[in-house]
């Protein structure tokens, strides 16, 4: 069984989020949640929330299919971070100048599957 969760427009730069995603790729889902819980980086929180959502989606799918659900059998098979919308902001400066500030966002995707479905 495979379950997927996506978080869009997360206010974390894609480069910082990819560091966290690379940390959990291929790990057991419960172990990955613990790893992200204690990671000091700020990007770990939204990635952990997406991973927890994917595990919850797997639980719902198993209940609908009438299958037994074991959280320890889930592995993170796919994770990736895409660049989202860039928010453009301006800050006034002296002599009528304006500094342009780009706020980057990310789209975080996590796919979990059973051990036999893992790559």
Quick structural summary:
This protein has 119 residues and is an alpha+beta fold. It has three helices and five strands, in the order βαααββββ.
What would you note in describing this structure?
Belongs to the universal ribosomal protein uL22 family. It holds the Pfam family Ribosomal_L22. Part of the 50S ribosomal subunit. One of its GO terms (biological process) is translation. This protein is α+β, with helices and mostly antiparallel strands and 119 residues long. Helix content is 35%, strand content 34%. The protein is built from 3 helices and 5 strands, in the order βαααββββ. Strands 1-5-2 form a 3-stranded antiparallel beta sheet. A two-stranded antiparallel ribbon has the order 3-4. A hairpin with a 5-residue loop joins strand 3 (87-92) and strand 4. The mean pLDDT is 93.
Keywords:
Ribosomal Protein L22, Chain A; Ribosomal_uL22_bac/org-type; alpha+beta; single chain; three-stranded antiparallel beta sheet; 119 residues; 34% strand; ribosomal protein; Large ribosomal subunit protein uL22; Ribosomal_uL22_bac/chlpt-type; two-stranded antiparallel ribbon
């Amino acid at each position: 069984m495979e379950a997927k969760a996506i978080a869009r427009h997360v206010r974390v730069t894609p480069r910082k989020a990819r560091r966290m995603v690379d940390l959990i790729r291929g790990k057991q889902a419960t172990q990955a949640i613990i790893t992200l819980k204690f990671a000091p980086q700020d990007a770990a929180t939204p990635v952990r929330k997406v991973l927890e959502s994917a595990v919850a989606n797997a639980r719902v799918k198993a209940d609908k299919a009438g299958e037994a659900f074991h959280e320890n059998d889930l592995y993170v098979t796919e994770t990736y971070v895409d660049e989202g919308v860039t928010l453009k902001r301006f800050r006034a400066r002296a002599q009528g100048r304006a500094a342009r500030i780009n706020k980057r966002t990310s789209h975080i995707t996590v796919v979990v599957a059973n051990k036999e479905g893992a790559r």
